[in-house]
Structure formats: C-alpha cells, structure tokens
C-alpha cells in the first residue's frame, strides 16, 4: 500500500524513501518548519520542479522564496524515476503536435525539449555528481506498423532534429544497439543520457540552499487560504507546526498533492502508477544474451510502454504500468506482471532475480501535454501534467516558472504556458476507465 492522492486527504510526512536502487548514501535531512514565517514566494514540493524554480528565482531574479515538502527532497517522482534524461514531455507525438499547432510551433516545442536536456547537462557538468551514463536512448518499434510513424516524423522535421534523432532499421538495432530484443527498428537520440535521479535531486537541493533559499522537509501543506477572495493580500499556508504567509504560491507537487488540496488543480490531473524493478547483477552469460550497448536506454511503442536500461553495475532496470490504486501498489501481482514483461521482452534470459521493486505516481493531463500556468488574479503558479516524462522537462519548467512570474513577455510562444490544465469531464470515472484500458490491452496481447 502506498499513499493515494485520489483517496487520501493529507499527504503523509516524514516518510522514508522507497526501497529503490537509487538511495545509496546519507544525505542532509532538511528540518521541518516550526514557526510562522512570511515570504514573498512559497513553493510547495521539493522535486525537480520546485527546486529548479527556487534556483532560478534566486540566481536570475534575486528573489526570496522558501520551499516546503511533506518529506525530504526527492521523495516524490524526482527521487524514484528511471533516470532517463530525454528530450520530451507529455504524450503527444511530433505528427500529433504538428496537426494541432502547426510546424513552426512544433519546432519550438522540440527546441524546448532539447534545451531541457541541456539544462540538466549543465547542472551536472557544473558539479552535481549523479552517476551519469552516456549511451543515448532508443524509441523502439515493437512491431512493424509502429516503425513508419516514428521514421515519418524525422522526414517531416529533419531540419529541426538535425543529428539529434537518428532513424534505425531493424538490422541496425539488432546488430549495433540491442540484439536480445525483438523489434522492427526505431529512432535513436544520441544526446539522451541516464542518471541516478535521487542523487541529482539532492545535488539540486544543495545548490538551491547555497543560494540562501530555505528548504523545509517533513512539512506537509495541509490547508491553504488562497487569494480567491480578492481582498486577501496574502496566501496563508497551514503546516502542522507553522503558518506561511506568502504573496505568491507556486505549486510544484506534481501528482502527489491530495486531489482536494488546491482548488485550482482539482480534477485536472490523473495520478497513475508507474512501477520499476531492478534485477540482481547479471552474469556475463546473461549480459551476452541481452546484447545491449553500454548505457543505452530504451522505451517501446506498446500502448502500455516498457522502459529499460542497463545500470553501470550490470543490474537491469525495467519499468512499466503498475496497479491502479495506491492500496494495491505493492501487491506481488504487479511485480510479477513486470517480471513477465521483462522476460517477454528479453526471451533469451529465461529467468532473472529481482532485487528491488518500487512504484510512484505520474501525472497524466487530460489532453496529453503539460502546462506551466500563472493565475495572475490569485497569484498562483503551477507546472504540471508531464505524463511520466518530466525529468529533464521539469528542470526546464522551473526556469520557465520563474520567468513567467517576472518577465513573461520573454517566453518563447508555446502552448504550454498559454492555458490552464483541462478538467477531466467525469473525474470519478478515471480509475474505472484505466481498469478498462488495462483489461483491453491484456486482451489484445500488446
Ligand atoms: C516510476 C517512475 C519512473 C519515471 N521515469 C522517468 C524517466 O525515466 N524519465 C523522465 O523524464 N520522467 C520519468 N518519470 C517522471 C518524472 O520523475 C517526474 O515527471 C518528475 O520527477 C516530476 O518532478 P516534480 O518536481 O514535478 O514532482 P515530484 O518529484 O513528484 O515532487 C513533488 C513533491 O511534492 C511534495 N508534495 C506534494 N503534496 C505536498 C503537500 N501537500 N505539502 C508538501 N509537499 C507536498 C511531495 O512530497 C513530492 O516530494 C518517472 C516517474 C515515475 C513515478
């Protein structure tokens, strides 16, 4: 059982990190807020979004802010993801974006995605040690009909992508990148890289603190009086041991805040579980069967995607869908589903020993793309709806949130910050629909 944002009314605090493959050493424990404070800007959530926002507010705009988290930095997705640093967010393909917004905007979006990878790269290069693994990323067509649309987007946008995406034939995938998996080919992103996401999040937190920003851990926001009342001059944020008075509220809680906590976000996202398993170190015989290029990361084109990478200690990380509810998240059935998925993907392996299994909530927006939004009347900003692809993008989103607050006219013209997240039309049906989708996918066997 894990905390469930659609069921629980308060996020648990002071929780240990999940037993993932990432938590490797003691890190600083940020103290809880224990008195009333006043600040210009309060940020809720110490994942990449919140920390990157604080970093840019402090470094670019010399703004005073504080960051609170119900737990320690990286307790949410940012400390438990797969560590794929990729150019992308949301769930729309390039052809879908072109259809909706046209070619010029799609190119700008793709540039933003590339910039987000560069933003992570710059932070790491400037001294965040997070076990970086270069090796690129393949989007793998799991059957022939999925290859043409992947390659088509390269033909349509070759001038934008230049050498940032390379088409791969079936034979190239097999001979040069990944021999142990059946595929029809794919596309390769050479600039993508893997990291230990938990170490990266802590490195970012240390950076932020060095800028004089106060980070409070184990400090859940349990209620807030927002500025819906036009006469109110400040937000009042209630935590168990102190109130925060803030002119501006920035919500960086991703899928993790209780659904009813923020009226501005109620029923605007759908928390869905993604789970990961990590094997024991593979033997040299097993590694020969994988035939996987060092550092390579892969995600396939199934409706319920699998993603995997070989870690530097020869452990295989394999992720995919999890349970529908928090109550069932740790049930052994879901670990077995993922284990079976791994063995179906790598049929030559026959068996593997699993060492770690954990889950987290990703945040699906109704129309499949994220939003970075400023409600100027209430003075609330949020960035949300990354649809499970938010490592690099959330770092960039932090920069954009700071910019949206202080110099919005300088933002590139992208649909991401021109509208609010859409409300799910039948919010109570979300989980029933997800159950249906999982059952249908199982029936179709894809
Ligand atoms: C299993 C899994 C694998 C993934 N793999 C990848 C990947 O490989 N690549 C990729 O690009 N993306 C991946 N993602 C998605 C990616 O991790 C997220 O998009 C990203 O980390 C979001 O960062 P964030 O800062 O917005 O949110 P989070 O890191 O989730 O942080 C939100 C924080 O808000 C805090 N919070 C919530 N409510 C409150 C409250 N009321 N009071 C105080 N604090 C509160 C939480 O404690 C939490 O720490 C994965 C996600 C999961 C779950």
UniProtKB/TrEMBL annotation:
- The residues covered by the FAD dependent oxidoreductase domain are 41-404
Keywords linked to the UniProt accession? Oxidoreductase
Q: Would the keyword Oxidoreductase turn up in this protein's UniProt record? A: yes
Pfam family of the protein (one): DAO
EC class of this enzyme? oxidoreductase
One MF term in GO for this entry?
A: oxidoreductase activity
What EC number(s) would the UniProt record show? 1.-.-.-
Instruction: Note the Gene3D superfamilies from the entry.
Output: D-Amino Acid Oxidase, subunit A, domain 2, FAD/NAD(P)-binding domain
Keyword Cell inner membrane among record annotations: no
Which InterPro entries does the record match to this protein?
A: FAD-dep_OxRdtase (IPR006076), FAD/NAD-bd_sf (IPR036188)
Superkingdom per UniProt: Bacteria
Q: Which PANTHER family match?
A: FAD DEPENDENT OXIDOREDUCTASE DOMAIN-CONTAINING PROTEIN (PTHR13847:SF281), SARCOSINE DEHYDROGENASE-RELATED (PTHR13847)
State what protein this is by name.
FAD-binding oxidoreductase
* The organism of origin for this protein: Glaciecola petra
């Amino acid at each position: 059982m894990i905390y469930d944002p659609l069921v629980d009314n308060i996020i648990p605090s002071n929780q240990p990190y999940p037993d993932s493959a990432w938590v490797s050493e003691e890190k600083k424990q940020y103290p809880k807020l224990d008195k009333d404070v006043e600040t210009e800007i309060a940020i809720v959530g110490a994942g990449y979004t919140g920390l990157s926002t604080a970093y840019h507010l402090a470094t670019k705009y010399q703004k005073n802010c504080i960051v609170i988290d119900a737990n320690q930095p990286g307790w949410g997705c940012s400390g438990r993801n797969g560590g794929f640093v990729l150019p992308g967010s949301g769930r729309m393909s390039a052809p879908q974006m072109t259809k909706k917004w046209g070619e010029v905007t799609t190119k700008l979006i793709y540039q933003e995605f590339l910039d987000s990878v560069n933003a992570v790269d710059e932070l790491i290069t400037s001294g965040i040690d997070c076990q970086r693994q270069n090796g690129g990323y393949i989007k793998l067509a799991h059957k022939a009909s999925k290859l043409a649309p992947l390659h088509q987007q390269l033909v349509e946008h070759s001038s934008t992508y230049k050498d940032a995406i390379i088409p791969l034939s079936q034979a190239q995938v097999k001979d040069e990148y990944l021999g142990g998996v059946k595929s029809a080919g794919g596309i390769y992103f050479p600039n993508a890289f893997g990291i230990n996401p938990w170490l990266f999040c802590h490195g970012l937190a240390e950076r932020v603190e060095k800028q004089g920003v106060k980070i409070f851990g184990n400090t859940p926001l349990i209620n807030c009086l927002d500025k819906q009342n036009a006469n109110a001059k400040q937000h009042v944020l209630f935590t168990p041991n102190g109130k925060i008075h803030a002119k501006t509220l920035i919500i960086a809680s991703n899928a993790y805040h209780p659904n009813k906590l923020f009226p501005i976000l109620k029923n605007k996202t759908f928390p869905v579980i993604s789970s990961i398993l990590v094997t024991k170190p593979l033997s040299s015989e097993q590694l020969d069967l994988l035939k996987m290029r060092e550092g390579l990361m892969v995600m396939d084109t199934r409706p319920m995607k699998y993603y995997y990478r070989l870690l530097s200690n020869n452990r295989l990380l394999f992720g995919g869908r999890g349970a529908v509810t928090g109550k069932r998240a740790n049930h052994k059935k879901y670990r077995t589903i993922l284990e079976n998925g791994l063995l179906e993907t790598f049929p030559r392996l026959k068996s593997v020993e699993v060492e770690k299994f954990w889950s987290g909530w990703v945040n699906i927006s109704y129309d499949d793309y994220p939003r970075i939004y400023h409600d100027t009347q209430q003075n609330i900003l949020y960035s949300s709806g990354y649809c499970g692809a938010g490592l690099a993008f959330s770092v960039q989103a932090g920069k954009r949130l700071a910019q949206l607050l202080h110099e919005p006219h300088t933002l590139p013209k992208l649909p991401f910050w021109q509208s609010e997240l859409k409300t799910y039309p039948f919010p109570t049906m979300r989980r029933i629909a997800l159950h249906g989708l999982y059952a249908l996918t199982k029936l179709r066997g894809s």
